[in-house]
Design a protein that fits this description.
Shape: globular
Number of domains: 2
Helix content: 55-70%
Distance between the termini: 37 Å
Order of helices and strands: HEHEHHH
Largest sheet: 2 strands, parallel
Structural class: mainly alpha
Number of helices: 5
Strand content: 5-15%
């Protein structure tokens, strides 16, 4: 896992130690590494979609906009797909 950032590598290691099935991770290389390690992977947009589907939040778009304002980088393609899936 030498090509991963320290945070991503630690998240995968901790998840292995805790015998987790699912890991929340967004960085593309880290997602790939987590899948190779046997984890189901979800990113922040997947988490937002799940929250909307469970009626915990009314919409995902305001959260995406706030994440963007805070410097969180999301690909336009992935964002558009998530908004479409959310019906927004």
């Amino acid at each position: 896992m030498g090509y991963l950032g320290k945070g991503e590598a630690e998240a995968i290691i901790l998840s292995k130690e805790k015998k987790a099935d699912l890991i929340l991770i967004d960085e593309k290389k880290a997602r790939k590494a987590a899948r190779r390690a046997g984890f189901e992977v979800v990113g922040v947009l997947g988490l937002l979609l799940a929250a909307k589907n469970k009626a915990l939040i009314p919409a995902i778009k305001p959260f995406i906009e706030e994440l963007s304002k805070q410097g969180f980088r999301l690909s336009k393609k992935v964002t558009e797909r998530a908004l479409k899936e959310a019906g927004e």
